[in-house]
Amino acid sequence: MSERVKWLILMLMFTCCLAKLDENLHFITKAPQEGYTWRLVTDGQGVTQLLLDKNYDIVDCNVTLGAPAKTAVRDLFREAVQSYSGAIIDQHMDDTDHDRYKRKCAKFLRDSKRIKYETTAPLYHERMRRERFRSTWPGTNWCGTGPAPPNSTLGKNNGTDSCCQQHKQCDDVVEGYQRTDYYQNMRPWRISHCDCDRQLYDCLAAVNTSVSYAVAFTYFHDFNPTCFERRRKEICTEHDDWFSCKKIEKVKVPTEKDNPTWPAFYPPHFTRPRQKTQEIVRPTQRARGF
Q1: If 0-12 CB within 10 Å is exposed, 13-18 middle and 19+ buried, where does residue 86 land?
Q2: Alpha-carbon span 41 to 81, nearest angstrom
Q3: CATH placement of domain 133-258
């Protein structure tokens, strides 16, 4: 029996194992964030993604079931081979109950709502801060983490809303848990290109109202999100039949970067434009929670 036939039989056995409900595939890889590990577990019917810190405590997680999970399972072996997000640490099959991982994730999501803001886990901060901006900001149609409105109508705070509209319509983004261009977004929310975030920063500063300040403070100070820039890195773009790297190219890969932090006072380096954007409503009090 030739080596190639043996290899095909091995791959067939591997595929059959994915369909067994009593066995799970563990795919573990180093995450882009330093000190974190990304663990993906599947039983062929569902997929659980876990982001673990250096002590192997859950920092973030996600459970996918139904049709999206089956699609993820089909792509799982290809992702393991081409490991876009980092070096593979481990990949194995065992009889661990996949439901146990789902219960762990569900418990983490429940506990994260009750955890104190002073916790030392950095991504706990980010999840809780996002909950404060979950809905649309009052007086706007575009400022918030919700979906874009069906039309282009601006809210009564039209200057601030226009900034958020431009930011939400940014073309260069990576959606939550999306893998694109050799990069894996490990968060459930999208990440924008740094140019889009800088444009939002400058736009809100130019509007210069209490509403634009509150929105900017929430996004850049409370959330303090990362953005990404495309930088050239050496990536294996082609593999041979035995999955060894056959071709290495320098390609532009999204690379995370910190955004500027909005200070607690009005930025002194921003000059007010001659024709400042006027808003219909300018509340005299700061937004609740700031």
Answers
A1: middle
A2: 16
A3: 1.20.90.10
Residues 6+ apart with CB under 8 A from 266: 208, 213
Furthest-apart CA atoms within the chain: distance in Å = 81
Structure tokens at 91: 């990949």
**Encoded amino acid at 242, one letter:** W
User: β-pairing, 183-184 with 179-180?
Assistant: antiparallel
Specify the amino acid at residue 95: D
CATH 1.20.90.10 location in the chain: 133-258
3-state SS record for 85-101: CCCEEEEEEECCCHHHH
pLDDT in tens, 5-62: 666 666 666 555 544 444 555 555 554 445 667 777 777 677 787 777 777 788 777 7
The dihedral over CA atoms of 176, 165, 267, 274, expressed in degrees to the nearest 10, equals 160
Prediction pTM value: 0.48
- Neighbour-count burial of 149, counting CB atoms closer than 10 A to its CB (0-12 exposed, 13-18 middle, 19+ buried): middle
Can you read off the two tokens belonging to residue 74? 């089909």
